[in-house]
Description:
There is one protein chain. By secondary structure, this protein is of the alpha/beta class. It has helices at residues 21-36, 51-56, 77-99, 136-144, 171-179, 210-220, 252-259, 266-279, 291-296; strands at residues 2-7, 43-48, 106-109, 112-114, 127-133, 148-151, 156-160, 167-168, 183-187, 191-195, 201-203, 225-230, 235-237, 245-250, 282-287, 301-303, 317-319. The protein has one domain (2-116, 164-319): 3-Layer(aba) Sandwich (Carbamate kinase). The protein is built from 9 helices and 17 strands. Helix 7 (252-259) packs antiparallel against helix 8. It is globular. The relative contact order is 0.15. The model is unreliable at 52-80 (pLDDT under 50).
Amino acid sequence: xxxxxxxxxxxxxxxxxxxxxxxxxxxxxxxxxxxxxxxxxxxxxxxxxxxxxxxxxxxxxxxxxxxxxxxxxxxxxxxxxxxxxxxxxxxxxxxxxxxxxxxxxxxxxxxxxxxxxxxxxxxxxxxxxxxxxxxxxxxxxxxxxxxxxxxxxxxxxxxxxxxxxxxxxxxxxxxxxxxxxxxxxxxxxxxxxxxxxxxxxxxxxxxxxxxxxxxxxxxxxxxxxxxxxxxxxxxxxxxxxxxxxxxxxxxxxxxxxxxxxxxxxxxxxxxxxxxxxxxxxxxxxxxxxxxxxxxxxxxxxxxxxxxxxxxxxxxxxxxx
Length: 320
């Protein structure tokens, strides 16, 4: 089976933790041990979510770091993203190599994702990135760079467009690695690029949703299964109430309706339902600790176009 597993930030960074390197190393090691259990006998691509690093552990105006500017005179975030993606992927690769019992090859692949310059998202940047800007000098520097900013009561943060991923540039290398039996680690967001009028590609200031990017990877490599591993048992209906119940199976159209009020779960629901609808194959959302059962369909939330008899689902519900 060919499987793409997208690791949500919540599967690697526990609520209330400070996010220090020791905590991260522990969670990466634990995640690798879980993922190794589904590697044998399967083609496996692991997609990590680097939003935790891009959104919280970096100043929006890196005044203390001396970086060479790009041709447009602006310090681009795509170089930082590239460094982050490689670092996280390599840590996973190292731990996974230690967990795999066979001489299974592993590789970390830096991905680039093409987006459409005409995407409406570029006219309405809404994805906050970087740390809060509270210093007046930093705020002046941000204005001088013509950054779009938002204020949420604590301080200002930069906002960038969040366009839909269109094409994975590393399709051929990824296919070759998989065909050779390699377990591949890569970033769901990747580096966003656009095509100029002459076809030349160039980096662009934007944010690629990591789950949408992971779904694109799964679709591109003809994955049989797309899994989003979180810290939750799956999609919980009426969460926080006495009537809460695990959604065991959902049709993509019904899942998109839930996404309208799903908060942080919404991007995951959109990505999973898009994959299921576009490929006719199965997607699953659930706990990383249950990854083996997510693969065999006995845990978490399954999203597919097939019609399921509610009586066949134990301990949950079905949404048509």
